[in-house]
Specification:
By secondary structure, the chain is of the alpha/beta class. It is built from 9 helices and 8 strands. The radius of gyration is 20 Å and the shape is globular.
């Protein structure tokens, strides 16, 4: 290899390394992984917390992962630029490990109380440990797939905790998937208690969604596209205000990364209203 070619390679490698270093150091946000103790489950739950570089108290968005994910999924796979987003918006992101709980307090497994954890214990820990704006008007929850259902479920049942909820490709009607994604491990078999499955689907909570800023976002090629469209129409018929996005795409992390960019303006508008008021 010629000296000139070697020099070009070295220059290219140096430029690449400098760009990578600049990318890594461009994030001023702090990224912490902590084990938050859950009294209800008698164990520590891993949580990734992304705090923006700010001297002021900030609002908080709780991000819930999908089936098969954990506390690292959002920042590690779905949206690696979360620290940059946190800094640019001045918002904290909290990503708990919800395992495959569907974010329920399971009626068949007393050791699985993830609704209590996400909507209660975790919120209390974050507000007592970090510089947050500790009011429901500065707190939102968002998730994809299983986490989309969990975000709506927790927000509707805990309106005193959250002002906004966003579901990205959410599985909003559990009754259509009785043998899928370990839902039966959390709720028990559907044929044994169909009423419980129906009551546990956010599709049945339409009348209770008023008073929250609700965002639905689902790809046109997504497995849950028709369920989300049906939920959208049910909300319209019930006169429940909400935002609905349907964009080209499937059930993918790339879609959810872009969807987060679409829903954050709605959430930030809610936070801004609270600060003005």
């Amino acid at each position: 290899m010629s000296t000139a070619a070697t020099s070009i390679i070295r220059i290219c490698l140096s430029a690449f390394l400098l760009a990578a270093l600049a990318w890594q150091t461009s994030f001023a946000a702090d990224v912490d992984t902590v084990a938050v103790w859950s009294d209800s489950m008698r164990k520590g739950i891993n949580v990734t917390i992304i705090s923006p570089s700010s001297d002021e108290a900030v609002p908080v968005v709780y991000l819930l992962h999908g089936y098969g994910g954990d506390h690292t999924t959002w920042a590690g796979k779905t949206k690696p630029s979360l620290p940059s987003v946190a800094d640019s918006l001045g918002v904290m992101f909290v990503c708990p490990d919800g395992r495959n709980s569907w974010y329920f307090d399971s009626p068949v497994d007393s050791s699985s109380c993830y609704e209590t954890f996400v909507a209660g214990e975790l919120v209390a820990y974050v507000d007592s440990t970090y510089r947050t704006l500790p009011s429901r008007d500065c707190r939102a929850v968002c998730g994809f797939s299983m986490g989309g259902h969990g975000a709506l479920w927790c927000a509707v049942r805990h309106k005193d905790v959250y002002c906004a909820a966003a579901s990205l490709s959410g599985c909003v009607d559990l009754t259509g998937y009785p043998a899928s994604w370990d839902i039966a491990k959390v709720l028990g078999p559907m044929d044994a208690n169909p009423g419980l499955w129906q009551q546990s689907s956010v599709m049945s909570l339409v009348e209770r969604m008023d008073g929250l800023a609700i965002v639905l976002d689902c790809g046109t090629e997504d497995i849950f596209s028709q369920d989300n469209l049906r939920l959208h129409w049910l909300l319209r018929q019930a006169g429940v205000g909400h935002t609905y996005h349907s964009c080209p795409g499937g059930h993918t992390h790339d879609y959810w990364a872009a969807a987060l960019d679409r829903v954050m303006p709605v959430i930030m508008e809610q936070f801004s209203r609270a600060r003005v008021e």
